[in-house]
Amino acid sequence: MIAYKFLDAGGLGPFTGFPWPVGEWVEAPRADPCRQGVHACRVRDLPLWLGDELWEIELAGDVIPQERKVVAVRGRLTRRVDAWTPDAAREFGRYCARRTRERVGFLPVLSGFVGDVDRFVAAGRIPIAGFAAARAAELRDGAGGYEQERLAQASWLAGRLGLDERLL
Amino acid sequence: MRLERELACNEIVELVTAYLEDALTPTDRERFEEHLVFCDGCGTYLEQMRATIQLTGRLDDRLEPELEQRLLEAFRGWQTG
């Protein structure tokens, strides 16, 4: 299975600090979500796990699908998604800001999210801009609004980065 | 109103030790890490906790007998007023 993985700068796992080799299989004793295994994203999971570097990863062995990620026994980085750059991240932030303005910009109280998201984008805090946009949607449209907004963000990322939307 | 699965910063602070000791349930661990992705403040707090644990783990907790005796006497004196 082909999936994606965000890493910190220098190819490090964001929560473990594991230095991911490129092209080599990394194997865990088992796939145990959030404890052991290779954790990766489908396209729809990407907005939740934004990071410095985006990589395509091939997963093998048992792959456990989770609500917001997939976990496998084995994985290897196959290529870096070069289109994910600081510029692309800022563009994504501006997309989130535009969506927020369209959704809640005309509503009392909720319109405050517009300024929040703009400030996050200006400060380069892109992950929280995406989160705030989804929160604004959730507050306007109910629980489904959050998921819908995250899916829209994923779709934007897929289009902008040239990812396979079938993996959405 | 908050999403059911969403953790607030004060909850992250309460859970940080359990996170570092790998004592959270998979669901709570995921929620914790999701929060870290977008919350710089909690990310910094986690790193500070990690560094503190690393540094204190290196401390030698044995005291010189003379210093230990003086401290014990000082504490006894403090307890009795």
Descriptive terms for the model:
heterodimer, A: 168 residues, alpha+beta, 39% helix, elongated, B: 81 residues, mainly alpha, 72% helix
Description:
The complex is a heterodimer of chains A (168) and B (81). Chain A has 168 residues and is of the alpha+beta class. Chain A has four helices and five strands. In chain A, a hairpin with a 4-residue loop joins strand 4 and strand 5. Chain A starts with a strand and ends in a 7-residue tail after the last helix. With 81 residues, chain B is mostly helical. The mean pLDDT of chain B is 82. Helix content of chain B is 72%, strand content 0%. Chain B is elongated and about 50 Å long. Classes of the chains: A alpha+beta (168), B mainly alpha (81). At the A-B interface, helix 3 of A face helix 2 of B.
Structural topology:
The complex is a heterodimer of chains A (168) and B (81).
Chain A: E1 2-7, E2 26-27, E3 38-40, E4 53-65, E5 70-80, H1 86-104, H2 112-122, H3 126-141, H4 143-161
Antiparallel strand pairs in A: 1-4, 2-5, 3-5, 4-5
Chain B: H1 9-20, H2 26-38, H3 40-57, H4 65-79
Helix pairs in contact in B: 1-3, 2-3
Outline of the structure:
Chain A has four helices and five strands, in the order βββββαααα. Chain A has 168 residues and is α+β, with helices and mostly antiparallel strands. Chain B is elongated, with a radius of gyration of 19 Å.
Estimated structural class of chain A: alpha+beta
Percentage of helical residues of chain B? over 70%
Question: Average pLDDT value of chain B?
Answer: 82
Biggest sheet of chain B: strands, sense, closure? none
User: How many E-type strands of chain A?
Assistant: 5
How many strand elements of chain B? 0
Q: What is the beta-strand fraction of chain B?
A: under 5%
Runs of chain B in which pLDDT lies below 50 for 5 or more consecutive residues are none
Shape of chain B: elongated
Structural category of chain B: mainly alpha
